[in-house]
Amino acid sequence: MALNRKIAYINLSNGEVETAPIPLEMRRLYLGGRGMDMYLLYNHTKQGIDPLGPENVFLVSAGILVGTLASASARTHMAAKSPLTGFVGSTNMGGFFAPELRWAGFDHLVIKGKAKKPVYLWINDGAIEVRDASHLWGLGVFDTQESIRQELGDEEVKVLCCGPAGEKLVRFANVMTGLKNAGGRTGMGAVMGSKNLKAIAVRGTMDIEIKHPEQALEYDEQMINKVNRTKFAQIMQKWGTMFIYGVTNSTGLIRCRNFQLNQLVGGDIECEHIEEVSFGTEGCFGCVIHCRHKYIIKEGPYAGVYAQGPEYTSQGAFGMEVGCNNFNTILVGNHLVNTYGLDTLETGSMIAWAMELYEKGILTDEDTDGLKLEWGNDEAVIEMIHRIAERKGLGDILAEGPLRAAAKIGKDSLKYNIQVKGMSNLHSDERPTPALALGIATSSRGSDHLRSRPAIDLYHLPEPVLRKIYSNPTPYDGPLTSNYSDYEGKPRQVQWQEMVYEAVDCLGICKYHTIFLSPNLLSFDEFSKLLYYNTGLEMSPLEIWEVADRAYTMERLFNIREGLTREHDWLVDRYFDEPTPVGLPIVRGKKLDREKFKKMIDEYYELHGWDENGVPRPETLEKLGLDKEPSHKL
Amino acid sequence: MQKILLVDSEKCTGCRACEMVCSVKHEGVSNPTRSRIHVIKWEAEGFALPMICQQCESPPCMAVCPKDAISRDEELGRVVIDYDLCIGCKMCVAACPFGGMGIDTVARRVVKCDLCDGDPTCVRFCQPEALQYVPASTLNLRKKRDAGLRFAELMSRFA
């Protein structure tokens, strides 16, 4: 059945492999994917370890619904102590790796130690082998995957790997599968590199039993139609996430020139440009949204290269943030980060920060080896991507991430960096939107829009609609407001979104199929049915919420154990001191109010059952069954 | 009215939903290796093509079957296996030029697309409509329309 997938413990130091079943009791507590990974992370690491040392653990998992009839059940989750932040490392990607892992008999991999030389794992129908990867070291992301498929003589093998950036321990190196599916955030590629683990290859031909196949087929068809009927899906199918730029840029909700402007004034990098280079779209496993374009670069030194994407994130990283107004730079930058295995978001943000430091004279031509790090210098942006991935010159410093780089550069460089907990923010400007600002401030993995962003707050939905969404499956009768400029009621929205994103990450469903960018998509009620029809596991919407709450609180416990305090749930001063210079009247001249923001955080802690320092109260831990952790059940 | 399962590779997004729903429909499990349809991919080129039994008018699988276990069902325009007669010799698998005949190693028998008795599940789940179940007699009209559009575009360019 779908619930008989195993957990494998792999020690790279001595090559030992052990497998074990996953008890049903643990499924009911954590489901799978990110939830179970958080349990494993807390239980299999000791306080204060070096994230890039052999004592860190690298966790790879499939959500509990992966490979089943739940639309877009494609997600792989990876976790470790983050080398970027020192807190929870957690990242999630689509593609075809996770379903193949399940067909090969596994849901969770716990990888420990460090191999003496480069290796990759070969997982085939229940068997796990550690193989030499010396010949793969240094290869780009896609070449690595193709080489492994050739070596194993099977085109159907699915591979996740780190790129050269991960090998060089760039602290925001990502893990990738396919041409563009990336587990981008928190530097999981560097963790792979630190373990001499180049890749994991999987092939599986084992059944995943669908508990109630007829109902599962019927219900999935309903869900697909529900997704397809949304305007959001229809737009995504055509443009991918880049469509968002049209709205956020014209409103004034993006970071341009690092944090100097909140619009790319006169910008010409609209999503429609993709039509000039795209020859179709591709979907992840079982997904009806198929949001990534297949494109061929047409101009410059990379002309003729085939790549996929780009996402809204790359549009910001190599467009707005660095002040570039050239669609081709976005296409090339996206291709390069996906080849080197770099987090596109962190890369763009670090370059934009360096550009502002260059403008301020904090970085000079001597620091940049003569590279003119000026706003809109397309060649300099591309060159910096190479230097970061190869750790050359200034790139070697930026490769260390915001806090370490700022410590090396010195002066008052840190104050210009837009980060939380040592991880850079998306190219979004949250000064006019307190709800979104609260989300990035409190996110368990550092500044991030995929942890809790109540994106539908931007739609000015009527209050009854908000009430319907945000008071289910746990009751809420506090304030909710349709105005995104307000501070009122927003903590509940952030908390609710945290829970729904944690839930989909446990299930292994893509966030684009839940209430993230459309209010009409799947939520806890639907999760409960999908879980029952596909796996037979009977859990109410409220019980699934409790799993999410338990897992998120576990992330909090991990972070607190690693030194997190209330001060870490805070934004850099620029959010409170510099008003937005441009944009629509509702966003122009806006900055956050420290007192009101502090009150929001108080409310947010209270909703979670955490005390004023953000520490879960004993009764909260007891309620969630976390009072005896670490419990070492897996 | 006989219908044909039409595959349009240009529309295929490579999501493989068809593989999964096929195996769930027929075997009650998610397992692409037991599916009747497979999305074959050339990842480096970004090309995906669903491959499935062509329901040949003169099927090589039928011709080589030593037990006459394979026949044509003219009502649905499909090629069917009579498992009471089949001895599992797999000659049909060897003979098919498209890989339309597969081996289910769990059920220990050869398997092929049966068009779900006239309501193909894969078609119902193919959002981009790369798979369509269309009347055979008018199948080429759509292609004529597409070709006509290209022709008209070409003419307007040189007019």
Structural class assignment of chain A? alpha+beta
Uncertain residue segments of chain B:
none
What's the alpha carbon Rg of chain B, rounded to whole Å? 18 Å
* Number of DSSP strand runs of chain B: 9
Query: How would the global form of chain B be characterised?
Result: globular
Whole-number count of domains of chain B: 1
Strand order of the largest sheet of chain B: 1-9
CATH architecture of chain B: 2-Layer Sandwich
Give me the secondary-structure category of chain B. alpha+beta
Share of helix of chain B, binned: 25-40%
Q: Overall mean pLDDT score of chain A?
A: 97
Number of helices of chain B: 5
Short description:
The complex is a heterodimer of chains A (634) and B (159). Chain A has 634 residues and is of the alpha+beta class. Helices cover 39% and strands 14% of the residues of chain A.
Structure report:
The complex is a heterodimer of chains A (634) and B (159). With 634 residues, chain A is an alpha+beta fold. Chain A is built from 23 helices and 18 strands. In chain A, the strands form 4 sheets. Chain A has a 6-stranded mixed beta sheet, sandwiched between helices. In chain A, strands 8-7-12-9-10-11 form a 6-stranded mixed beta sheet. A 3-stranded antiparallel beta sheet of chain A has the order 14-15-16, with helices on one face. The radius of gyration of chain A is 23 Å and the shape is globular. Chain B has 159 residues and is an alpha+beta fold. Chain B has one domain: Alpha-Beta Plaits, CATH 3.30.70. Chain B is built from 5 helices and 9 strands. In chain B, strands 1-9 form a two-stranded antiparallel sheet. Chain B is globular. The mean pLDDT of chain B is 95. The A-B interface holds A 2, 67-69, 96, 103, 142, 145-146, 155, 178-179, 205-210, 213, 216-217, 220-221, 224, 228, 237, 279-288, 290, 294, 306, 308 and B 10, 13-17, 20-21, 24-25, 27-34, 41, 43-46, 48, 105-106, 121, 124-125, 127-128.
